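Progress note, sequence design subtask.
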């Protein structure tokens, strides 16, 4: 595979990744309204701030040993940085990472989600397995929202470049088990019973994956594709994990660097320090420039993905530094069997 090329597979992606039709999407909103009051959906004080646990809870990684490869391998083998669109189309995808590492409970930046809902802005959230397990209600809310989709982002934000074999499979696939468990639990809730048809619009398994640290290698890309996951990078970085990156600076980066087919990365786990304040600056400006916001799946279906054979932030090799800075600490061994809380959840993925 060349370092950068266009994959001509838009037709196949349109069937596999296109958003549900409008009527079913509207029904999904009714499903959400039936299961959560507006006050339960809204941001809550203190929820945004990550909490370091003095005595880390025992959150075990779901057992993926018996999980088979996806019935259909991902249509893209490589990392998608952006999408080349037909002339005249100005689509852009906002993405927000929701990651959590061992020894903490990460935050949920409800102000970001509240603003997106108030402006009817579509977005894609890349949620870690540990984050979903500790934020089950918020995950269910995002799943039930017709504006949003959820991809996965590793179990505990470990550097997959330092993993192999069963450890690599667990980091990539375990989040899909938690996703499936939360979706199943939502479908079995009494509030969802009258909305069975709308519930079916929620994908049974995630189709998108973002590598922790934006770092990958050939083995990781292969493992993701084998399990039906398209690896999604970005071509516009907000730099929002830096406390010194102001809302104005974040907005200016988005406005200046977005182009048709761009994928923008930000964070909604409490480590996008000024992201919530940046969105009301950036989104109206991008709309004024003619941009329309779509989910990543909709963006993929609208054009030709620009794919690379490696993962990076702004230039090839720039995320390799995590092999030496944080990767080895975060790739340390984790407990492997499901805890009682997860054991009933979803030992297998829908096929």
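Output:
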């Amino acid at each position: 595979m060349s370092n950068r090329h266009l994959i001509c597979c838009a037709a196949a992606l349109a069937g596999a990744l296109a958003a549900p039709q409008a009527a079913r999407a509207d029904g999904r909103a009714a499903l959400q309204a039936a299961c959560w009051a507006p006050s339960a959906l809204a941001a809550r004080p203190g929820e945004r701030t990550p909490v370091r646990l003095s005595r880390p809870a025992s959150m075990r990684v779901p057992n993926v040993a018996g999980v088979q490869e996806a019935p259909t391998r991902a249509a893209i083998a490589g990392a998608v940085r952006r999408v080349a669109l037909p002339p005249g189309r100005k689509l852009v995808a906002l993405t927000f990472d929701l990651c959590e590492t061992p020894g903490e409970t990460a935050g949920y930046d409800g102000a970001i989600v509240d603003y997106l809902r108030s402006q009817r802005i579509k977005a894609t959230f890349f949620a870690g397995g540990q984050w979903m397990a500790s934020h089950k209600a918020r995950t269910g809310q995002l799943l039930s929202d017709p504006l949003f989709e959820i991809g996965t982002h590793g179990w505990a934000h470990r550097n997959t470049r330092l993993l192999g074999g069963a450890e690599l499979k667990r980091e990539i696939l375990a989040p899909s088990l938690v996703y499936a468990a939360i979706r199943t639990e939502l479908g079995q809730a009494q509030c969802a019973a009258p909305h069975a048809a709308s519930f079916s619009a929620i994908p049974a398994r995630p189709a998108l994956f973002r590598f922790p640290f934006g770092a990958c290698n050939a083995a990781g890309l292969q493992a993701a594709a084998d399990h039906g996951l398209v690896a999604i990078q970005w071509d516009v970085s907000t730099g929002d994990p830096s406390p010194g990156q102001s809302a104005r600076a974040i907005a200016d980066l988005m406005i200046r660097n977005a182009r048709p087919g761009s994928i923008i990365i930000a964070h909604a786990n409490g480590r996008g320090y000024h992201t919530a304040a940046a969105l009301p600056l950036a989104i109206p400006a991008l709309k004024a420039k003619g941009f329309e916001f779509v989910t990543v799946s909709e963006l993929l279906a609208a054009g030709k993905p620009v794919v690379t054979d490696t993962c990076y932030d702004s230039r090839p090799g720039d995320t390799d530094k995590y092999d030496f800075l944080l990767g080895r600490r975060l790739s340390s061994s984790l407990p492997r069997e499901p805890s009682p809380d997860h054991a009933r959840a979803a030992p297998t993925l829908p096929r």
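The longest strand covers residues 91-98. Work on this subtask will continue into the next period as scheduled.
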